[in-house]
Specification:
By secondary structure, this protein is α+β, with helices and mostly antiparallel strands. It has a domain of 72 residues. The protein is built from 5 helices and 9 strands. Strands 1, 2, 3, 4, 5, 6, 7, 8 and 9 form a 9-stranded antiparallel sheet that branches.
Length: 317
């Protein structure tokens, strides 16, 4: 039983391989973009412009007939046709600068730059000075300690209660940090000179916060021409040579004599297939599947024969 199944499987695989139609394996049909014919009609050139991913197997190589001439393919030429592409292009660049000084900025921007576009075109572009723009990139802040002094003269004693503990300076509040005293006037008390008028020099401190520019963003445009040479098309030239079709003369049979005057020409009969536009039936489309069926039938018959023979052997045993 196992041997029979193996034989059946082999027969099925062979039938499937043989039944593959030539039409199913054929490449996509290619159509000529132009057809050229010589003055004497002895040569026809069919020109095909294909993309690189198209299969040239779709180009027809079959003989054909036209105007009483039979044409046969003699050569198939391949020509790569490069295409030159060119266009104007504008590229915008952006960079950072620590200064907004124009001389410094221009030192960062070369007058010309080489550019390659996303689709592969390249060229030299020139800086457009009227497109240069400078914008503030951001701000930072810093805090520092500031001090100020105030003088309070003509005080009767060195009493700090007369000194303000805080003062306002340019919109910020300053806090008293230190006091120094100066004697403005002295008096005689029991023969001793003593100060009776004082000036207080008070020192105040506070914090000041300031903002600053962290940097600048520079944008500019470059313009120019970019180009490339692309191999986007492949040209095939199918050359067909022609030979004039000779008419076939059909003579009457001996058993069926026909009186033909000697002065009348013998009628010429041409090939019916040629008069119908050169149609030829391809028997491969019928014979290949038929042969596959016969082969499959033979495989199945052989398998059944071996099975019957095996069963006969087992019964005899």
């Amino acid at each position: 039983m196992k041997r029979t199944m193996i034989l059946l499987l082999i027969a099925f695989v062979l039938a499937a391989a043989m039944c593959t139609s030539p039409l199913a394996l054929a490449a996509e049909v290619c159509y000529p973009t132009s057809v050229e014919q010589s003055d004497d009609e002895r040569e026809i050139r069919k020109i095909y412009d294909l993309s690189p991913n198209q299969d040239p197997a779709g180009i027809s190589r079959s003989d054909f007939e036209q105007n009483g001439i039979h044409y046969t393919l003699t050569d198939l030429l391949k020509q790569e046709t490069p295409e030159y592409q060119e266009r104007n292009h504008t590229e915008e660049v952006s960079l950072s600068s620590k200064s907004k000084d124009m001389e410094t900025i221009l030192s960062l921007l070369p007058q010309q730059k080489e550019f390659v576009t996303e689709d592969g075109l390249s060229g030299t572009l020139t800086l457009q000075l009227d497109t240069v723009q400078v914008e503030t990139a951001g701000y930072g802040s810093s805090t520092k300690t500031v001090t100020t002094t105030r003088r309070y003269p003509n005080l009767g004693s060195q009493d700090t209660s007369y000194i303000p503990k805080t003062v306002d300076e340019n919109g910020r509040t300053m806090t008293l940090q230190d006091i120094s005293w100066q004697v403005d006037n002295t008096g005689n008390l029991d023969g001793m000179a003593m100060g009776d008028r004082y000036t207080a020099v008070a020192t105040y401190s506070g914090t000041a916060t300031s903002s600053y520019v962290t940097g600048y963003t520079v944008t500019a445009k470059y313009t120019g021409t970019v180009s490339r040479i692309a191999l986007d098309r492949v040209r095939y030239v199918a050359i067909f040579e022609g030979t004039e079709i000779t008419p076939v003369v059909v003579l009457p049979e001996i058993n069926d004599p026909i009186d033909i005057p000697f002065d009348d020409p013998v009628p010429a009969v041409t090939d019916p297939a040629a008069s119908e536009g050169g149609f030829h039936f391809n028997w491969a489309y019928v014979l290949v599947p038929l042969g596959a069926v016969v082969l499959a039938g033979g495989g199945v018959g052989a398998a059944l024969f071996l099975k019957k023979r095996s069963e006969s052997g087992e019964e005899a045993a």
